[in-house]
C-alpha cells in the first residue's frame, strides 16, 4: 500500500502512526511526499489496481488535473474510488439544521462546483456552520463526465451519510448501531435517497 501526501504535518502524523504498527504492516506500507497532480514524477503509468481519493477533492480548487493524475496510475480494469461532498443538494444540510437563510441561499447557488459551509461541533454536541469559506462540493453529473474523459468511466455510485449527516461528531454510537448502519446502507444504494446524501462515493473503472 502506498500513501501520497504533500502536507508535511500530515506526513509526519502518518509516519508516527505507522511506527506503532507491527513490522508486517510497516513492511507493506509506503508513504510518498508529493502532489497527486504530478504522479508521473513518482509512479509508472498503470502501476496500481486500486486508487483511493477520499475527502480530498473538497480541498482542491481545480481538481481536474488531480483526477487525471490519479487515473494515469490505474492498470487496465483498475478502480478509482472517490469520496466527495455532494453538490447536488446544498440546501438540505442547512435546512435540517434549522439554518433557513442558509438553505434559501443554497437554492440560489449556481457555481459549477458549489461551496458548502464547514461544520463545527460544540462541547454540548450541538453542530453549527462555521464562519469563513466553506469546502468545495462536486456534482454527480460533472464527475461522471470527468471520469469518462480521463478513461475511468463511472461504474457505480452511492450516497454516504443520508440520514446521519447532521449527527454531531464524537458522540457515542447508539444502541441500535447495526440497524442504523443497515438503514444507511440501504438508503445509500436507493433512489431518490442517495441523491441527497451528504457525501457521494463514486467508483470509476479504467477501460
Automatic annotation (TrEMBL):
Lineage: superkingdom: Bacteria
Keywords noted in UniProt: Methyltransferase, Transferase
Keyword ATP-binding: no
SUPFAM superfamilies xrefs: S-adenosyl-L-methionine-dependent methyltransferases
The keyword Methyltransferase belongs to this UniProt entry's keyword annotation: yes
Residues annotated as signal peptide: none
A Pfam family it matches: Methyltransf_11
Any one GO MF annotation of this record: methyltransferase activity
GO BP: methylation
Domain Methyltransferase type: 2-81
Record's protein name: Methyltransferase domain-containing protein
Provenance organism: Streptomyces similanensis
Amino acid at each position: 500500500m502506498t500513501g501520497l501526501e504533500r502536507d508535511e504535518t500530515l506526513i509526519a502524523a502518518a509516519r508516527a502512526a505507522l511506527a506503532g504498527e507491527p513490522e508486517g504492516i510497516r513492511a507493506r506500507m509506503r508513504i510518498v511526499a508529493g502532489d497527486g497532480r504530478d504522479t508521473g514524477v513518482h509512479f509508472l503509468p498503470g502501476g496500481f489496481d486500486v486508487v483511493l481519493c477520499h475527502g480530498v477533492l473538497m480541498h482542491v480548487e481545480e481538481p481536474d488535473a488531480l483526477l487525471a493524475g490519479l487515473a494515469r496510475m490505474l492498470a487496465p480494469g483498475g478502480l478509482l474510488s472517490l469520496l466527495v461532498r455532494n453538490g447536488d443538494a446544498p440546501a438540505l444540510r442547512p435546512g435540517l439544521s434549522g439554518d433557513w437563510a442558509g438553505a434559501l441561499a443554497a437554492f440560489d447557488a449556481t457555481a459549477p462546483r458549489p461551496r458548502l459551509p464547514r461544520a463545527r461541533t460544540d462541547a454540548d454536541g450541538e453542530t453549527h456552520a462555521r464562519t469563513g469559506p466553506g469546502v468545495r462540493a462536486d456534482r454527480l453529473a460533472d464527475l461522471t463526465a470527468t471520469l469518462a474523459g480521463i478513461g475511468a468511466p463511472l461504474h457505480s455510485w452511492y450516497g454516504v451519510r443520508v440520514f446521519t449527516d447532521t449527527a454531531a461528531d464524537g458522540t457515542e454510537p447508539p444502541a441500535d448501531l447495526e440497524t442504523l448502519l443497515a438503514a444507511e446502507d440501504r438508503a445509500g444504494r436507493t433512489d431518490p435517497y442517495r441523491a441527497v446524501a451528504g457525501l457521494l462515493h463514486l467508483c470509476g473503472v479504467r477501460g
